[in-house]
Here is the input.
Amino acid sequence: MRATVFAIAAILATSPLLPSAAEDDVTKTYGLSLYGDLKYGPDFTHFDYTNPDAPKGGTFREYTVGTSYDTFNPFALRGVPAAGAGLLYDTLTARSSDEADAAYGLIAESMEIPKDHTWVIYHLRPEARFHDGTPITPEDVIWTFNTLREKGRPLFRVYYGDVVKVEQSDEHSVKFSFKNGQNRELAQILGEMPVLSKAYFATHDFERASLDPPLTSGPYEVESSEPGRSVTYKRVADYWGANLPVNRGRNNFDHMRYIYYRDRGASLEGFKADDYDVRIEATMRDWMTGYDSPAFRADLYKKLEIPNQNVAPMQGYGYNTRRPIFKDRRVREALAYALDFEWENKTFFYDHYVRTRSYFDNSELGATGLPGPDELKILEPYRGRIPDEVFTEAYEPPKTDGSGNNRDNLKKALALLQQAGWTVKGEKLVDETGKPFEFEILLPSDSTFIRITEPFVQNLKRIGITATIRPIDSAQLERRTEDFDFDMIIVLFQQSLSPGNEQRDYWGSEAADTQKSQNVLGVKDPVVDEIIEGLISAPDRRSLIAHTRALDRVLQFGYYVIPQWHYPFFNVAYWDRYGRPEITPKYDPGFDTWWYDQTRADALAKRKSELGK
Here is the structure.
């Protein structure tokens, strides 16, 4: 699994290079793509962004922020999965990282799908094996599907909800039948499914958190685990899928090791001490000033900006709209005026960040300007049920001159709050019963988030609102988020270039009442539900874009999030002991295509020794 949610929307790209099945309205294909052609032909040998001759060997050390882990099963409800656990599992298909929505056969060698999109057949590779040498069978696929939907995390029930039947169609094939043909992404979402061993789980409890390494089929297996400190995986020497086109030039390291840190500050110091090798930096201040050291000045580790062509994630202060204090849309709009982005960007971030204004920023999916004809066809039936601004304004977060004087915006905030029934008594904002406006902001125990939130809190104080920052460790924050036990948190919604089923889990009314769903904000709006269904059943790319923009507008003017910022690059720091392909994938930093360069590693060790003298 490559992301926190399976936000990968796609469907069949018919290919004239492969013969059709017996009936003219059914196509057999080696890959899936949404509304477009596949970049790679049926005889491709490797992805362009990999080096098929990359040497194998060495260790790749990464970090993770967290307190510990207690399971290698990331699909069950119970337990905290170990970092990197996805390395253990193969899926039916594998994504291409230089196409917006394409996937190619991994466990499955081909797929069949009809023009009406009412079913899909996955044909399994006869050579696909679990690590004990037993074959991966249709029975394993069927058992996995049923188990994930019945006992797995809530998102599986959401994603697989339109599957009405799963059955073995022949010795190596599984057929999934759908409720109708409107959920056009469903075929490929099923391709993202890991395949678990039915025989293994016949004697092991799927739902129990366990550090016993499970039987899997992926390129790595567990070598050692020290909960709270690290976990190490070793490359499977006889991995069945090593030479498949989707894997050639990938999974090059003999060992993958994840080091645990309790906060990002400690993890940065660990990197500079060479406790691990590669780091994606998410804090601009640290990126600009935190890496200076004798080792950096000696060029022992490097900083690299890799262009990021993904949809910019919506990161911001997220309201829990289940709380009465945040039920009123005017209140949510008002509090946004207390965030002075322009001043914070200049003061904290060296003017490097871009203000996020859309849930699909940095892409054609984001709503800009006034709604066009295609969007209006979708939105007009909801006039009177959605904010009028959707039709008359282009959403923009509040702006300032960056001077730090936010008086005008705070006046606007107070006017909105007074419209919502709040009044100022003394130095406190109170409701009609005299209860003061107070809430808590849960933050990870990372001083960076505390530091950039304090000015926001001070601005709220100026209009009589008491916001309390409460730093907690990442495990506690995750539990409270999953239980919807918070007032405000920092949220991050990562979108794909082809949104679909996952939108139900982000914003759907049913997900709002389902613990551990992605709808942490508690969005519960029948209009949003209907637009999502239209998005999922969009017949072409143009319709998908229109529905996504319509959804974006309704969410923007719902004021569920106070948007923060984004940066269109991966900021990567790494110790100079690795080789990289000449081409970097468009949508991923590409670490799984790097390799251990013994010559570089030896030279680095020599330079480190000389520096220490």
